[in-house]
C-alpha cells in the first residue's frame, strides 16, 4: 500500500491537504458467479466531507495521466482523468522529486495486469533469485556426489586384512 499527503484541488479554487492511498481492492462477491473476478488497485482519497468525502478511483483503463503544462510542472501538479464521464482530478505535491515518484507509482499500477496478484508482481525477480539458488544448490549436490564417488573409490581400493581371533581389537598397537 502506498500512501502520502497530497493537496487536492476542490471546486477549482481550493487546495485541500488530503491523504491519498493506492490500495489493492478485492471485488465484491457476486451471487451469479461462484468465482469472483480478480483484484484491482484503487486510488483512495480521504477528502473532508464538505469537499466530497471518500473518493475511490479504480486504477483501470479508464484512468489516464493528463499531459501537464509547464506551469503545472513548475507547481508540481499531477492531473488525472478518470471514469466513464472523464472527470478530472488535480493533485499537488511539495517538490518535483515527490511528484515524479507519484507519477511513476500511478503509471506502474495502471500498467499492472489486474489478473496478477500482488505477490506475483515481483515474481520475475523472485524467480530469477530462486533459479540462481537452485543452480547453486545443484552445484553443491554435484560436488557432494563427486566427493562421495571419490570416497567410495578410495575405500574400495583399500586392502582389508582379516583379524585373528587371538588379536585383541580394542587398544591394538600393531594395526
Largest sheet: 7 strands, antiparallel
- Structural class from helices and strands? alpha+beta
How would you name the CATH homologous superfamily of the largest domain? Pleckstrin-homology domain (PH domain)/Phosphotyrosine-binding domain (PTB)
Distance between the termini: 72 Å
Order of helices and strands: EEEEEHEEHH
Which parts are unreliable, with pLDDT below 50 for 5 consecutive residues or more? 116-122
Approximate helicity band: 25-40%
How much β-strand is present in the residues? 25-35%
Instruction: State the domain count.
Output: 2
Quote the average pLDDT: 78
Protein name: PH domain-containing protein
Organism: Phytophthora palmivora
Structural overview:
There is one protein chain. The protein folds into two domains: 116 residues, Roll (PH-domain like), CATH 2.30.29.30; 38 residues. It is 32% helix and 27% strand. The chain is built from three helices and seven strands. The termini are far apart.
Concise synopsis of the structure shown:
This protein has 175 residues and is α+β, with helices and mostly antiparallel strands. The protein is 32% helix and 27% strand.
Element layout with pairings:
Elements: E1 2-10, E2 14-25, E3 40-46, E4 54-58, E5 64-65, H1 70-74, E6 77-82, E7 87-92, H2 96-111, H3 123-157
Question: What are the key terms here?
Answer:
175 residues, 3 helices, 27% strand, PH domain-containing protein, 2 domains, PH-domain like, 7 strands, 7-stranded antiparallel beta sheet, single chain, alpha+beta
Amino acid at each position: 500500500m502506498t500512501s502520502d499527503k497530497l493537496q487536492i484541488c476542490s471546486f477549482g479554487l481550493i487546495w485541500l491537504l488530503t491523504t491519498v492511498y493506492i490500495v489493492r481492492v478485492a471485488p465484491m462477491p457476486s451471487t451469479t458467479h461462484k468465482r469472483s473476478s480478480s483484484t484491482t488497485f484503487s486510488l483512495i482519497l480521504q477528502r473532508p466531507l464538505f469537499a466530497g468525502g471518500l473518493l475511490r478511483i479504480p486504477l483501470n483503463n479508464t484512468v489516464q495521466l493528463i499531459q501537464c503544462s509547464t506551469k503545472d510542472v513548475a507547481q508540481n501538479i499531477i492531473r488525472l482523468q478518470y471514469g466513464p464521464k472523464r472527470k478530472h482530478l488535480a493533485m499537488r505535491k511539495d517538490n518535483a522529486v515527490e511528484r515524479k515518484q507519484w507519477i511513476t507509482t500511478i503509471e506502474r499500477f495502471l500498467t499492472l495486469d489486474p489478473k496478477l496478484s500482488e505477490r506475483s508482481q515481483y515474481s520475475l525477480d523472485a524467480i530469477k533469485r530462486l533459479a540462481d539458488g537452485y543452480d547453486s544448490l545443484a552445484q553443491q549436490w554435484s560436488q557432494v556426489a563427486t566427493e562421495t564417488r571419490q570416497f567410495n573409490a578410495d575405500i574400495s581400493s583399500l586392502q582389508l586384512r582379516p583379524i585373528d581371533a587371538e588379536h585383541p581389537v580394542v587398544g591394538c598397537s600393531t594395526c
